Amino acid sequence: MDAAVVPAYGQAPELREWAASEPAPGQTLIRNLAAAVNPVDLEMSAGTFYFGAPEPPYVAGGRRRQGTSQRRPPPLGGRVWYERGRLGGSFAHLTAVDGDIWWRSPASSTMRWR
Question: Lowest-confidence range among 23-27, 91-95, 98-102?
Fold first, then answer.
């Protein structure tokens, strides 16, 4: 799958092929629909985030994201938000997410860019 990969600390993410996430027991697979870069992502890719960062190369993206579940739970195809924190991994088509870091999106959420 395509992913924004940080090749080394201090380098900008690059679009690369990356092995798709396989969910472990207790995880669900999320198809990412929206993600944005924020200061935490920039500090992680610089290697200066105070809580640390994954060892490069890694798939960038750690803050709140929107997507749809690809496996149960939550309901298959259900819209969710999730938080990866310093684990990164959300700047890819698919992300395996622990069961305690996702939330159902409100019905009023359109997931449209304005």
Answer: 98-102
Model-level pTM? 0.73
Q: What's the CATH code of the domain at 94?
A: 3.90.180.10
Q: What token pair was written down for 35?
A: 């993600």
Structural domain harbouring 69: 2-104
Question: Average pLDDT, whole number, for the chain?
Answer: 77
Q: What CA–CA distance (Å, rounded) separates 41 from 77?
A: 27
The tokens for 99 are 């069961």
**What is the enclosing helix (H) or strand (E) of 82?**
strand 79-82
* Number of domains composing the chain: 1
Q: Is residue 15 part of a domain?
A: yes
